[in-house]
Amino acid sequence: MAKIVSFTPRVEASTGELPAHEVVYRQMRELILFGELAPGQPVTIQGICDELTVGMTPVREAIRRLCAEGALAFQGNRRVVVPELTVENVNELIFARQAIEPQLVLRATERATDAELEALAEIDAALDEAIERGDLRNYLEQNYRFHAYLYAMAGAPILAALADGLWLRFGPSLRVVCGRLGTRNLPDQHHEALDAMRGGDAQAAAKAMREDVIQGMEQVRRALAEDVSN
Amino acid sequence: MAKIVSFTPRVEASTGELPAHEVVYRQMRELILFGELAPGQPVTIQGICDELTVGMTPVREAIRRLCAEGALAFQGNRRVVVPELTVENVNELIFARQAIEPQLVLRATERATDAELEALAEIDAALDEAIERGDLRNYLEQNYRFHAYLYAMAGAPILAALADGLWLRFGPSLRVVCGRLGTRNLPDQHHEALDAMRGGDAQAAAKAMREDVIQGMEQVRRALAEDVSN
DNA sequence: CGACCAGTAATATGATCAAATTATCAACTG
DNA sequence: CAGTTGATAATTTGATCATATTACTGGTCG
Fold first, then answer.
1. pLDDT tens digits, residue range A67-111?
2. What is the DSSP annotation of B74-132?
3. Nearest CB to A92: which of B61, B95, B159?
4. Whole-number Å distance, CA B113 to C1' D29?
5. pLDDT of residue A16
6. Residue A168 contacts residue B162 (beta carbons within 8 Å)
7. Dihedral, CA atoms, B80, B159, A83, A157, nearest 10 degrees?
8. Are residues A157 and B92, on separate chains, in Cβ contact within 8 Å?
9. In chain B, which stretches have pLDDT less than 50?
10. What angle do CA B80, B89, B42 make, to 5 degrees?
11. Shortest CA to C1' contact from B43: nucleotide
């Protein structure tokens, strides 16, 4: 069977210069990081196509990328979902984070410039403000930004990519946990880490970060353990 | 302009049941892991299309996945290459591997069944044989299989994915290094690790693995440092 | 309770447009 | 006058889309 096909020229120039698949990737990444997508929620290609008004190919590529990073998961038969963490998964994440992040902070401290420390402090201030206001979404975003900025400072691209990728795995669950507990009594060892970095005490900064990581992840683990017992 | 388009029905049934993008991914993954692709080598989408005789979409998805895993890299303007490792990159890989892999071996030892230990021993035997014959390609493959099997045994999917992903980053460089040094005097702490696992001594097994990892990666680092000094 | 049938979503292709690299050529300088 | 550099043309490659095809899901009927 043959068919007449006419191709409409693309609108273009709207994105500016970034490829569509990159834009879609970043948008979906934010949705996942800041809990717009809940654990267990199915993700359909055509749904994203309609939502972001782009063709299937860029969406497809973004989803593959996110699957590779563990942010999404093949549900066996060509279905894609936001993964639900088990308690055991969280234990693995705790181990990985407490192994990698202190090392990044160590390096970041040794390389830090005054301007960078200033920027970090600003992010931390915005974070405190979000907690004050009870603005969960903003808390999640600033908290991530704080850590991501540290990773970038370390000048260790591979370790930074590893640490960054882990956020995609616990992002959705973190949202659920914080939504339940509220923004109060959230762990925040950031001040201690910042002070140590300002003083050039890399070891102390690394230790503070390790405690921050462990405290935060422990909360996720406890919440998950409660869920299971329901 | 309109055009007559006829869609030829796909051959199908040749792949069996695996989606094309998955097949392409695995094939490219092997090419990278076992050094068929050299560091710095450009990877073109259409080139892969011709090579594997598939459409662009599956190739595109496979490439995105591999980029996300660090096996390939965007070369700024929409060009993709096999990354070239710097000495600093190798330092990061050493840190990450020595942090994660002993933990996996620890867990693997605690969960190991006799059948699994048997399978490991078989892989190790094939590895020794490859060394004996000077069969580099087979050495690389069996060496990877040995570690990958250990990861699977640990029952820690996230840590296993992290460790596994690292192989894609140093695979091409490993090939270059081993190709230069030959298969002789390659580090092989596998026997020590296996013996410890058989005896249920998880700590000893983890230690042996850490040494194996460090020795292997140190060789990569040394070779890279020499390259730079040229 | 198992099998069929319809609906829906995913897979994969080729066409087309846009961009970047390569190749060509001409003008200008030493 | 030769070599190099600058711009421009041509080719290659990447990006995106609409569509055809296939597989899975869920509901219904025997």
1. 999 999 998 788 999 999 999 999 999 999 999 999 999 999 999
2. E-SSS-EEPPPPPHHHHHHHHHHHHHHHHHHHHHHHHH--HHHHHHHHHHHHHHHHHHH
3. B159
4. 49
5. 52
6. no
7. -40
8. yes
9. 1-16
10. 15
11. D13
Nearest Cα neighbor of B127 from B203, B170, B189, B172 is B189
Summarised one tens digit per residue, pLDDT across range B14-51 is 334 788 999 999 999 999 999 899 999 999 999 999 99
Q: Considering CB atoms only, which of B6, B57, B157 is closest to A60? A: B57
Question: What residue segments make up the domains of chain A, in order of their start?
Answer: 20-81, 87-228
Percent of chain A with pLDDT over 90: 76
In this structure, what token pair is assigned to residue A149? 């900025």
Q: Which residue has the tokens 């202190």?
A: A102
- Cα–Cα distance, B12 to B167 (Å, whole number): 32
Closest to B109 (Cα-Cα) out of B49, B51, B151: B151
Contact of A24 with A58, CB cutoff 8 Å: yes
Please tell me which of the candidates A3, A65, A89 has its beta carbon nearest to residue B5. A3
Cα diameter, chain A: 74
Q: What share of chain A is helix, strand, coil (3-state, %, to 5)?
A: 70, 5, 25
Instruction: Using the structure, give the distance in angstroms from the CA atom of B76 to the C1' atom of D26, rounded to a whole number.
Output: 46
Task: Strand C proximity: list residues 42-61 of A with CB under 7 Å.
Answer: 44-47, 56-57, 60
Token pair recorded at residue A174: 């973190």
Do the domains A87-228 and A20-81 match in fold? no
Q: Residue A148 CB: number of other CB atoms within 10 A?
A: 16
The answer to whether the beta carbons of residues B193 and B134 sit under 8 Å apart is no
- CATH architecture label of B20-81: Orthogonal Bundle (1.10)
Cα atoms found within 13 Å of the Cα of residue A39, Cβ hemisphere only: 17
Measured between alpha carbons, how far is B162 from B158 in angstroms, rounded to an integer?
6
CB B36 within 8 A of CB B72: no
- From the options 1.20.120.530, 3.30.420.140, 3.90.950.20, 3.30.70.100, give the CATH code of B87-228: 1.20.120.530
- Token pair in block for residue A205: 């900064």
Q: Sheet containing B42-43: give its strands across.
A: B42-43, B80-81, B73-74
CB contact under 8 A, B156 and A92: yes
Residues 6+ apart with CB under 8 A from B180: B223
Angle between helical axes of B56-68 and A56-68 (0-180°, round to 10): 30
Q: For residue A180, count other CB atoms closer than 10 A to its CB.
A: 11
Nucleic strand C under 7 Å from the C-beta of A114: no
A177 CA → D26 C1’, Å = 33
